[in-house]
Amino acid sequence: MTGSPTARPSPNFNARATGTDISMLILHYTNMTDAEAALARLCDPASQVSAHYLIARDGEVFALVDEADRAWHAGVSAWQGIRDINSASVGIELDHPGHDVGGQMTAYPPAQMAALVDLSKAIITRHNIPPDKVLGHSDVAPGRKIDPGEALDWAALAREGVGLWPEAVEPEEVATLKPGDATPAVAALQQALRAYGYDIAHDGVFGAQMSAVISAFQRHFRPSCVDGQADGETQTLVYAVCRAQAALDRGSVSP
Ligand SMILES: [Zn+2]
User: Fold this and answer.
1) How far is the CA of 10 from the centre of ligand 1 (A)?
2) Would you call 93 a catalytic residue per the annotation?
């Protein structure tokens, strides 16, 4: 869907921290029944939350906070050492009911995805946001947030030029790493997850934090299995994502 966003100004914003460039795009789901309910909450001074944009299920885009200002969507979060994610990012809320009680999600409608691609590409171009800085709320707040959820088709977004996606690789035949493990393979995987950007300790121990980060990674890159354990496919994907990121840093084009 093209055309200008519908203005729905929210009072919930302040100035970005001095000297902080916009370098990230953070995607969310609203976890509410419909767009009107979400807009009411995002524009309610008492809620203390907002985003720069909300995209309804039919693809209508609402503009709530000027991109120059700091919207309040990320909360306590971190990526590549950046902790004031709200100052460093543009935030988009996707109108979506969230995970159900059984942990299942409905698909994001095609019209909403098309609008997300158009809006994201415009934001990425305006602020020169690199592909590896297009992230989900769960990526920057693992263990605390699970949105936008594994139903978001990150691979399809990447095919449209929004975000990073690794090249296809055969999963390695290695043992699954799981909570309680403390091996060189755990330490190596932590180092890779840190290098990519996750806020994770490099202590060689597969604890609750690592399980939360693995779940966040799986929601983004391995949506068919989000279990907080690093099987061979998950481990292979982590290293493939790091290679794709390194290729970006060298200025070459990732396949
Ligand atoms: Zn969120």
Assistant:
1) 17
2) yes
Q: What is the pLDDT of residue 102?
A: 93
Give the Å distance between the CA of 252 and the centre of ligand 1.
32
Taking a 5 Å cut-off on Cβ, the residues next to ion ligand 1 are 28, 137, 147
Contacts of 22 (CB under 8 A, 6+ apart): 16, 67, 88, 89, 90, 127, 129
Give the per-residue pLDDT at 110.
98
pLDDT digits (tens, 9 = 90+) for 72-92: 999 999 999 999 999 999 999
Looking at the fold, whether 101 and 190 belong to one and the same domain comes out as: no
User: What domain count does the chain have?
Assistant: 2
Domain region containing 147 = 6-159
Tell me the per-residue pLDDT of 195-231, one tens digit each, with 9 for 90 and over.
Answer: 999 999 999 999 999 999 999 999 999 999 999 999 9
| Spatial distance between the Cα atoms of 179 and 182, rounded to a whole number of angstroms | 9
Domain for residue 254, yes or no?
A: no
148/213 same-domain check: no
How many angstroms is it from 152 CA to the middle of ligand 1?
A: 13
